[in-house]
Design goal:
heterodimer, A: alpha/beta, Rossmann fold, 2 domains, B: mainly alpha, 4 helices, 73% helix, flat
Chain lengths: 358, 147
């Protein structure tokens, strides 16, 4: 019996790929030395010892083998997975609802719609599912999955965060109050709402401040262009609201160390790894309670039910100017972080694998 | 855990503070700012974007009432029955819409071709103007030397 993973794409820097690579290490520790990650789109930086291009052929599969498929979007890999003769386990990372992309990117909207249809189609062939959050598990049930579903959070490689951060960014700490959000520029992550709240914070509370949005975007991306236009319309400059674009890992580490508060107003997340990262770096977190955000953050930060920009700005000021609240939020974050300890999550995954292996 | 945060209490205090200080919204929300915008037209014509949209529309113009049915066997059965009962109403409407979509895509293609044609003519005219300008400069120089 072989166990292997399948992903639509594999690259450094995205949550699905990071999870697959981390789980690969756990599988090999369990003795699955022949385990491999297969993907038709492997980008630079992934070692050949753990990943193979599935478009160059898959190994001969038997009915006993187990495929762990990271389902996150629509595409031909979903059909490929469905046709495998082996046992099938879906690891569900959630699929963003198409409505967020309708105005900006019809292709992405179509892919999301297709993804949901295909995810539902896989329900009948899936023996077991792993959801990275209870929110995702509920979505699987809504899609018609009747198989057992285990909730196993994303396995986060905290050891990587000990790497050296970019010093020039860290050196800026203290010069301006810095609010940070990390995540690619995408409509469901509502970077527009971040800019709006920041405008009122800067105007009503603290002019010596900035918002850093650390995440990739395309310069021709219509959503990014609207964000840049909105920033200008509010009279904010590129120094007030910083779009870093896709950044190297040391830069990302540096922004976490330089920032004062982590702010998230996203309306759809399957898990939201940046929340855990923020807690790891002892950043107090303010987040809007939507989708899986409330579940991931839980008591680890300030969870808002209302993202009225004036209220959010008030909360931003409160966290910055109240040392006791700040300390409490950091302490709550450290406590919540324990639930994502590598060994705890790895053991949940191992329990699922042991149960499958019989 | 030693301490917790009373979020409700904090937010109530913030609301009171906002009211006391008279803070109000004085700008469009992001949603209002981007309402009705594609993120494209606001920033002027961009040929590459126009071609991408045309390519998308060329694949998306045709509508069909058939979609794969999801859910359990019983649910799919009832959905199939409803689809069977409604197709006589929906299909003619979708066909009319598809015909309109087809005409719209052809018109978009015509506009893009028109832009290409005009760009080509403009490039030719610019070249002619440049050549004429050189000739004028040369003639002025000759006149100046004779004078």
């Amino acid at each position: 019996m072989n166990i292997f993973q399948l992903t639509p794409a594999l690259s450094t820097g995205d949550a699905v790929s990071s999870d697959a690579i981390a789980l690969e290490a756990v599988l090999r520790d369990m003795g699955c030395q022949d385990s491999m990650i297969y993907s038709p789109a492997i980008r630079g930086g992934i070692p050949g010892s753990i990943a193979r291009d599935s478009s160059r052929g898959m190994p001969k599969l038997s009915a006993d083998d187990i495929c762990l498929y990271h389902l996150a979007i629509g595409g031909p890999v979903n059909q490929m997975f469905k046709e495998f003769p082996c046992r099938k386990v879906v690891i569900f990372h959630n699929i963003t609802p198409a409505k967020f992309f309708e105005k900006y990117d019809r292709n992405s909207a179509d892919l999301c719609r297709r993804g949901l249809r295909e995810a539902a189609d896989l329900a009948s062939v899936t023996e077991r599912a792993i959801a990275i959050s209870r929110f995702d598990a509920q979505d699987l049930r809504r899609l018609g999955y009747t198989c057992p579903i285990d909730v196993v959070p994303i396995l986060i490689p905290f050891d990587d965060y000990a790497q050296k951060p970019t010093e020039s960014i860290v050196a800026e700490k203290g010069k301006k109050t810095t609010f940070l959000f990390t995540g690619r520029v995408a409509p469901n992550k509502c970077q527009g709402d971040l800019i709006e709240a920041f405008y009122y914070y800067k105007k009503n509370y603290n002019a010596a401040s900035r918002l850093v949005i650390a995440g990739g975007y395309g310069s021709g991306d219509p959503y990014y262009r609207d964000l840049a236009g909105y920033r200008a319309a509010l009279g904010l400059t590129e120094e007030d609201v910083v779009f870093t674009g896709h950044i190297a890992f040391p830069d990302l580490l540096a922004w976490y160390r330089c920032a004062d508060v982590f702010l998230c107003l996203s309306e759809h997340e399957g898990f939201c790894v940046p929340l855990v990262e923020a807690m790891y770096f002892d950043l107090p977190v303010i987040a809007y309670d939507s989708s899986a955000v409330g579940e991931t953050l839980s008591f680890g930060g300030l969870l808002l039910e209302d993202k009225n920009p004036l209220l959010v700005a008030g909360a931003m000021d409160r966290v910055v100017s109240d040392p006791k609240l700040r300390e409490t939020l950091v302490a709550c974050g450290r406590e919540r972080l324990k639930d994502f300890d590598r060994e705890i999550v790895a053991e949940k995954f191992r329990a699922v694998i042991r149960s499958l292996a019989g | 855990m030693a301490a917790t945060v009373n979020v409700e209490e904090i937010m109530n205090e913030i609301r009171e503070d906002i009211q006391k200080k008279g803070y109000t919204k004085d700008q469009l929300s992001f949603e209002d700012f981007s309402a009705g915008a594609t993120g494209l037209t606001r920033y002027g014509f961009d040929e590459k974007t126009a071609l991408e949209i045309l390519s998308d529309a060329s694949r998306q113009w045709q509508l069909t009432s058939w979609k794969p049915l999801t859910g359990g066997r019983v649910k799919r059965f009832f959905k199939r029955c409803i689809r069977h009962c409604a197709y006589w109403l929906m299909d003619p409407v979708l066909m009319d819409q598809s015909n309109f979509n087809s005409s719209s895509v052809k018109m978009m293609d015509q506009f893009v071709s028109y832009v290409d044609l005009r760009n080509s003519e403009t490039a030719d005219m610019r070249k002619q103007i440049s050549e004429l300008q050189e000739e004028v400069n040369s003639l002025r120089k000759q006149l100046a030397e004779k004078a």
